[in-house]
Amino acid sequence: MMKSQRIMFNPDVMGGKPCIRGMRITVGTVVGLVAAGYSVDRILEAYPYLEKEDVFAALAYAAWRSEEYELNLATA
User: Fold this and answer.
1) What tens digit of pLDDT does each residue of 35-75 get?
2) pTM (predicted TM-score)
3) 24 within a domain of the structure (yes/no)
4) Does residue 20 contact residue 58 with C-beta atoms inside 8 Å?
């Protein structure tokens, strides 16, 4: 599993979704904004408590997760 100091999981925050530094902003939110055409600077304006490295960490996590796959194990 990819390790990051910026991407955290807590079942009490956003239902356990991957969040930026434990805040209530998910990786999915950041990646969605990038996909919608928002620049890093515009994201930082909208979320001033984020840092540029948070945006890059979210993108790196999403890229890593998209390459991961799950195998269903046969059960008896």
Assistant:
1) 999 999 999 999 999 999 999 999 999 999 888 777 777 77
2) 0.83
3) yes
4) yes
